[in-house]
Design goal:
Order of helices and strands: EEEEHHHHHHHHHHHHHHH
Number of helices: 15
Radius of gyration: 26 Å
Largest sheet: 2 strands, antiparallel
Distance between the termini: 37 Å
Strand content: under 5%
Shape: elongated
């Protein structure tokens, strides 16, 4: 009897098909689904390049203090005010061309205050990725729980959770983000006091989480509704397996593809939303470095110094495009029947 990974013709064993590997004694042996996925992903040059770019951004975020220490500057010091020769006394723009880029300030300095652009960008990436990653983890976990519960239990539970998802999806999210952030801060912080940075970050994560899990939950609900009627689930029920064991052993392993793909698409969306909120003044504010706050400052300076907005803009575009391409590559690797 031949295995799926080998074919015997006229008494000779033909080379194994895709997924085959030489086993002991030179005999072909099948690869696991995870190994097959990894092999397909490595063949996708776009996906591999995107993965390296994404890892680079995360490395920059994690190593931001180390980069600042080696570079010898920080994102808070107003170098232009401490050294008047760096800024034009009339306009406040850098004296040197291209935003003050030179051997000392690699990405130039900020107009008016003269803060270092490179360290602002590095720590801004750190802030935005921290908020986006926290919101992604919470939204993914919430979407998994609600989607699986609704799909597996069905009945009234499915109806109630389905209407809850529909209700939350009906909110205009961008408008709700802008309107809800001041409400949260006003509920817990006195108007006479300045809102602490940690509270703003917590409020941002909370708002993004509350309105970010519904798409995944709806997707998983549909997947579970289909899977719960399959033979392997029915067989598990016949053997007396508990619902928790069925969900953990039979359903969740078959939901890995939509969960992973949706999460990779969710993170860049949260990062850009957080940047938009900071740009509008309801997210992270001065003096905390942030991608969106750099865009907001750059919008005031672009006529006299477009360089300040150039670096955060290019970095944001590269990050979002790389993460979206990575999500597509992961989806194709896990499900080769899909086409872009």
């Amino acid at each position: 009897m031949t295995s799926p990974s080998q074919l015997t013709v006229a008494g000779k064993t033909a080379p194994a098909a895709e997924g085959g590997a030489a086993g002991p004694g030179g005999q072909p042996a099948g690869l696991s689904p995870r190994q097959l996925m990894w092999r397909r992903f490595k063949r996708d040059r776009t996906g591999v390049i995107s993965a390296w770019i994404v890892l680079f951004f995360f490395a920059v975020a994690v190593l931001a203090p180390v980069i600042s220490s080696l570079y010898g500057k920080d994102p808070y010091t107003t170098y232009g005010l401490d050294r008047p020769e760096l800024l034009d006394p009339l306009t406040g723009y850098p004296m040197k061309p291209n935003g003050g880029i030179d051997g000392e300030f690699w990405f130039g300095i900020e107009p008016k205050l003269g803060r270092d652009v490179l360290t602002q960008l590095v720590f801004g990436i750190r802030t935005s990725l921290l908020i986006g990653l926290a919101a992604t983890v919470l939204s993914t976990l919430t979407g998994i729980v609600i989607g699986v519960v609704a799909g597996y239990l069905g009945g009234r539970t499915d109806y109630f959770l389905g209407r809850l998802i529909d209700l939350l999806l009906s909110f205009p999210q961008q408008l709700f983000f802008v309107a809800f952030m001041p409400v949260i801060t006003a509920l817990f912080v006195s108007p006479q006091k300045e809102t602490p940075t940690y509270f703003r970050v917590t409020a941002l994560v909370t708002v993004l989480w509350l309105l970010g899990w519904m798409q995944l939950a709806r997707l998983l609900r549909g997947q579970v509704l289909s899977l719960r009627e399959r033979e392997f689930v029915e067989a598990a029920k016949v053997t007396g397996a508990s619902p928790w064991r069925i969900v953990r052993k039979e359903l969740l392993p078959n939901l890995g593809t939509p969960i992973l793909v949706q999460s990779t698409l969710m993170l860049p969306g949260f990062v850009t939303t957080e940047a938009a909120l900071s740009f509008l003044g309801v997210g992270v504010v001065e003096p905390t470095p942030d991608w969106g706050r750099m865009f907001a400052k750059g919008a005031n300076f672009y006529e006299g110094d477009i360089t300040y907005m150039f670096f955060p803009g290019i970095a944001m575009v590269i990050f979002v495009v790389a993460f979206n391409l990575l999500g597509d590559s992961v989806r194709d690797a896990m499900d080769p029947k899909t086409t872009r």
